[in-house]
Amino acid sequence: MPPETTKSKPAFAAVILAGGSGTRFWPRSRRARAKQVLPLDGERTMIQQTVARLEDMMPDHDVWVITNNLLSDLITTQLPEVSETRILREPEGRNTAPACGLAAFLLEREAPETIIGIFPSDHTIGNVARYHMILRAGIKLAASGPNMVVLGVPPTRAETGYGYIELGAAVTPTTVGGEAIPVRRVRRFTEKPDAAHARTFLRSGNYVWNSGMFLWSARTLADAIREHAPAMAPLLEKIAAAFGTPEFEQVFAELYPQCESISIDYAVLEPRSAKGEAASELYCLPADFAWNDLGSWAALHEFVSESKEPRNCNVIEAGHDVQIGSSGCYVYSPGKAVALVGVKDLVVVETGDALLITTRDGSQDVGRVVAELKKAGRHDLI
Q: What is the pTM of this model?
C-alpha cells in the first residue's frame, strides 16, 4: 500500500491541456475559436472556469497552459493572471503524451518533487469543494512515492464515448481534512467500449470513467516517459533545456513535431498498468464531484437542464422564444426570435455563416460534419 507522505504541503502545479478544436461543438466551435475558449454554460469561458476553480489549490498560481498557435492569443487575453511565458504554443498538435511529458521535463529541471496536475480545459465541476478535497488527497498520495493518481468518475449510464478504468484492490485510504478518501489500485485501462461492453461495465460496479485528470510528481512522469516512450524523452528534454533561452521557439518548432502523436493513456498509463496492479503504482481516487466533460450538444443540454430546470426541458439562447407543444430541445440563435412548434429533442445552432440542425441523439456525430467540410475544401467553415 502507498506510504503516507511526510510533506504537509507539497508544491503543486496545474497543467491545462487546451489544444483541441472541439469539433463536436460545430458550428460555434472552430479551429481558432475552440470549445475551451467559448462561454458555453455561463459568462466565463471553459478555460477561465478551469483555472478559476484551481486558484485555491495554488497560492503561487503555478499554472501552465499548453495550446496551439490558433488559440494562444485568445487564451492569453482570457487568462491575464497566467504568465505569457507559461502559455506554451505547440508548433504541431501531437496529442496529450508530448504535452504532458514536456511539462514534466520543464518542472523536473527546477523542482522535481513538484506534483503536476493534468487538467483538460473544457470540463465542468458541479461540487468545487469536493473537487478540492479529492485533489488534496491526490496530491498527498502522488507526493508519497513514485505514484500515478488518476481520477475516476463513478458512471451513471452505459456511456460509449468515454474510456473506462477497471478498479483493483482497495488500499489504505488517504486522509484529508479528517476525511478518509478511498483509494483503489488500477487494474487496467479500457478504451471507449461498444454498447454491450459499456452495459457490462456499468452492471459490474467495478469500472469508472476516465476523467482525463491525473496527478504525479514531475520526476515520476519524466521517468515514466523515459521508460515507456524512450524515443520521445530526449526530444522533450532538449526542448525543456532550451526553455527561457532565445533558441527556445526554434528548438520547440524543430523537435516537437518529431514526437509521436499519442495520448498519455496509450504512451504511459496502459504500459504501466501492464505491470500488474500490485507493481504499477497506479491508484484511482473517486471523482465524485459532479463532473461533466460537455462532449456534445446533448451533454450541454443535459448539464444546463439539470442546473437550471428550464421550461419543458428546452434550453434556448435567443432574443425571444415561443414554445408550443415542444420539449427537450437545445437552441442557440442569439439575437433572433425562435419559435418551437410541435418538435422534440432537436438541436439547432446558428452562427453568422452556418446552421446546424440535428437531434440530441445525433449530436455525437457532429464532428463528422467538420470532416465532410474539410474534404469539400470549406476551410472557411472549420
A: 0.92
